[in-house]
Specification:
Elements lengths: L10 H76 L8 H14 L4 E6 L3 E2 L12 E13 L3 H10 L5 E10 L12 E13 L15
Antiparallel strand pairs: 1-3, 2-3, 3-5, 4-5
């Protein structure tokens, strides 16, 4: 008796053979999707870190530039600041030094007389903006009356007075006195000068009385 030939495999049998491969393929696809997602996340994270590093580097470079600028400014302006401070320009005004200087100059220049009057200190509003930082420009007006023998006495007095601080000359007038030619020890000339002593202070100073017209 002859045996029956084996039945030909059907599509169901072939599908069963392909199912392990299909499962493996699906797993690979899923793994690839996960890896792609992880790669995208990692790339985004690295790009964010790079952008942050670039910003931090730019900020550091800006700080270094600022430090270098401050160093250059300090090297440039520190000697000038020291000179101004030594000359009485920085800080509170030193009226005692002015008064002592006037007395000393009167004796050394042999002036017949020297009187003065100092007005209250005022804040100066400059017409041109000044880069003063935390400092404020102030001034005190001084009226000086000199009894002299020669016109040069006034110029010598002003030159000597500059050792006591920084000031500007607002105006000066000289008049000849009616003195007999044979008179000795009397002022043949009189000089009237208005000076403005300048200082830089760190805090504003309120003064009730305004200055007269002509303040710079």
């Amino acid at each position: 008796m002859k045996s029956k030939p084996p039945a030909a495999p059907t599509w169901r049998d072939e599908l069963a053979l392909l199912s392990p491969a299909a499962g493996m393929l699906a797993g690979c696809v899923a793994a690839a999707v996960v890896l792609l997602a992880l790669a995208g996340w990692y790339r985004a994270r690295q790009e964010a870190a790079l952008a942050h590093a670039v910003q931090a580097r730019a900020a550091s470079a800006a700080r270094i530039r600022d430090i270098e600028t401050d160093r250059q400014d300090l090297a440039q302006f520190a000697p000038r600041f020291a000179l101004l401070q030594a000359g009485g320009m920085i800080g509170d005004e030193n009226r005692l030094a002015w008064i002592e200087a006037i007395k000393r100059i009167q004796n050394s220049r042999k002036l017949v007389s020297a009187s003065y009057e100092i007005e209250p200190q005022q804040t100066i509003a400059a017409k041109v903006p000044l880069a003063l930082g935390s400092y404020q420009l102030r001034g005190s007006r001084m009226h000086v009356e000199l009894g002299m023998v020669h016109e040069l006495d006034m110029f010598n007095f002003l030159d000597d007075l500059r050792a006591a601080g920084l000031f500007t000359v607002q105006d000066c007038q000289i008049k000849r006195n009616d003195i007999p030619a044979e008179a000795v020890g009397l002022a043949r000339l009189s000089a009237s000068c208005t000076l403005i002593w300048l200082t830089l202070g760190g805090a504003p100073q309120a003064v009730a009385a305004p200055l007269n017209k002509g303040w710079p």
